[in-house]
Amino acid sequence: MKILKINPVHINYNFIKQAARVLGRGSLVVFPTETVYGVGADVFNEQAVAKIFSVKQRPTDNPLIIHIAHLSDLKKLARNISPQTRLLAKHFWPGPLTLILPKKLEVSQAVTGKNDTVAVRMPDHPVALALIKALKSPIAAPSANLSGKPSATDIVHALSDFGDKIDVYLDAGPAKIGLESTVLDLTVDPPEILRPGGITKEVLQNFLGHVIDHKHYPKNKARSPGMKYRHYAPNARLVLVTGNQQAMVKKSRALIRRFKKDGKKVGVIASKETAAHYHEADYVAVLSTRRNLKMAAHKLFRALRKFDDEHMDIIIAETFPERGIGKAIMNRLQKASIN
To answer: What is the distance of C-alpha 203 from the center of its chain?
Structure first.
């Protein structure tokens, strides 16, 4: 196992070549993107792709996102590439937008969860792009964490989940965004957001007109990661508290007292406006002000992992406004709260 610290501004291309050789021989590499860290394999090496599912303990019907570095790579993965696809790729790639497209036969169903669609994005991180270019092949890469757990936003998280099961870790510091990409299905009309993320519905509608949100868990196939199974969950039970600010504080304090009476260690996810009210809790994770949702998104997974480090039994989480990236924050909290 190697941990290679790499500066994204002044990239050490010897490290990139080392990591690309590891991928080329069918092993796995953990690498940074602007959203979260990923654990990657050469998309056209089925044995290597199978290792991703093994180390993550991931259900095989949960599809992987494929990362590319050139628009021309789309032709290797997707068929019937529409003008709509090209428009979105031109404006949002590199960036935190994953597109669901009709897949080519060359893409294994092991990658796509037995779907006839493929999930593709171009990451906005110089290290990720350099690695894909050095490999000269797209990289299949879900988030670098055990299946169902909070995603890894820095290398420490990935190391704690995988240890020496991964050959090379590329450490470029904390992920900039901290939540996974938006996933947009372009195989349906109107286009459907399967997972909210850094590119919001409002922004997409400016380009496409009508865009809808996916509302229900699929009973059979999942077209995107984050749909079918419990995701983003810490070890502790997570309880969401709703209402206006005053009501959330009142409910949360009552829950803290109740759980503490039962001998539980209680943590709270709070905003800066309310954190001082929770002095009875064992640990309080302050994400941001309620207006700074980008910061809240950036800190969310780090906070959830901290609760595991502190061995909390219960996490009481305030809810955040579902506007812009707030919709992605609430999507992650709601998934984490499913028992």
So the answer is: 19
Closest CA to 239 of 309, 124, 319: 319
With a cut of 90, say whether residue 200 has pLDDT above it: yes
pTM of the model: 0.94
Determine the Cα–Cα distance for residues 66 and 245; give it in Å rounded to an integer: 40
Nearest Cα to Cα of residue 324 among 183, 192, 199, 177: 199
CATH of the domain at 248: 3.40.50.11030
d(CA 282, CA 323): 30
Nearest to 39 by CA among 68, 48, 104: 48
Q: Phi, psi (5° rounding) for residue 225?
A: -60, 155
Q: Return phi, psi of residue 91, to 5°.
A: -90, -30
- pLDDT of amino acid 50: 97
DSSP 216: S
**Residues 242, 186: one domain?**
no
